[in-house]
Amino acid sequence: MLRALLDKFWDEDLWLPPNTTWEDITPEPDKAVVYSDYRHLLYPIPLALVLIVIRHALEKYWYAPFGKSLGIKNTRSKKAPSNPTLEAAYINCSKIKHKQICALAKQLDLSERQVERWWRLRRSQDKPSTLVKFCENAWRCSFYIFNFSYGFFILSDKEWLWDIDQCYIGYPHQGLTSDVWWYYMISAAFYWSLTLSQFSDVRRKDFWQMFVHHLATIALLSFSWVCNLYRIGTLVLLLHDCAEIFLEAAKASKYANYQKLCDAIFTVFTILWIVTRLGIYPFYIIWSTSIRAPMLLPMFPAYYFFNSLLCLLLVLHLVWTWLILQVAYKAINAGKIEGDIRSSSSDVSDSSHQSNHSTPNRYNSKKST
């Protein structure tokens, strides 16, 4: 039964171009072309754990000391008094309505004001410190710099970087090189690590958009790898990494209170974001996958699924662009960047300066959207 379902799922008519079989693209030493191996998709998962370990080591021994040298505080907020009943209610749901406040106040023989004050303290207790957020953004910025530099270095001599039609000419019999293999594995591992650590990182307003983004990216990488469509995948990765460098750098500089630097980087980021995500991505990448690809190779069902995931990323880009433009509009009116960039901090965050009095330990924190 299971075998029949797997055979139906991996039907060659669904996943491969006409007149192509899995045997044709199975990697074997006697073949002239090196094909991608679907079994290698397991490698990014343990590699993601390695990246998480590297991240925490860098945060502890490099980013945190550097952040402190910039004057970023890591103080804890005042803890809420012990109250098992209120604690149980808080764990059940960190958001509270006036009706619940009245019920708890009556149950504990407290005033509504006392319950509200306890709730504020308890929520403030869960907020990450500015240093924690700085370390998180410093890590991401460092990785994006590395991955973009490595990607551009290995792709600079690849023909499909300069002529996107080469992504389809000769498909699926396109040879895989070791440098592209590592680029794919490291990139997939990073998005796996983001997916795993997202629930313990600083929780922001676009939590679910980012979660969908990570899953869509992993799905894109996985399916493009299985179908040997890695060439277009490398272009999507390279295009996405370049703007992220400036996004994370702008956030880190804001947490370090370098406002003018933050404003300058944010301006560069906004321009680069619009050019890459709303310009090059839809009018070059998606146009190529949707218009040029059917002209150069016979279509098959899995390709349409792959292209749908690319379009899903475009929808997320539009959502984030709206958030970015809102921040930019407020910045123009206020004369500086206010709040978080691309996403808002959790709703328990009242302002950026209050974050200096929140807990530095992300592992003991519960975040609420």
UniProtKB/TrEMBL annotation:
Cellular-component GO terms for this entry: endoplasmic reticulum membrane; nucleus
Main localization category: endoplasmic reticulum
Annotated pathway: Lipid metabolism; sphingolipid metabolism; Sphingolipid metabolism
Region (Disordered): 343-369
Pfam families, sorted: Homeodomain, TRAM_LAG1_CLN8
Ranges where the TLC domain occurs: 132-333
Protein name per Swiss-Prot or TrEMBL: Ceramide synthase 5 isoform X2
Gene source species: Vanessa tameamea
Highest classification ranks of the organism: Eukaryota, Metazoa, Ecdysozoa, Arthropoda, Hexapoda
